[in-house]
Amino acid sequence: MLDVPAKPAARFITFEGGEGVGKSTQVKRLLVRLNRMDIEAVRTREPGGTPKAEAVRAFILQGRSESWGAGAEAVLFAAARYDHVSSLIAPSLNSGKWVISDRFHDSTRAYQGLTGGVDDKLIRGLETLALDGHQPDITFILDMDPAVAFARVNNREIEKALAETGDRFEKEDLEWHRRLRQAFLAIGKANPERCVVLPAGQSEDALEQEIWDTLNRRFPELEAKAG
Question: Looking at the domain assignment, is residue 3 inside a domain?
Answer without folding.
Answer: no
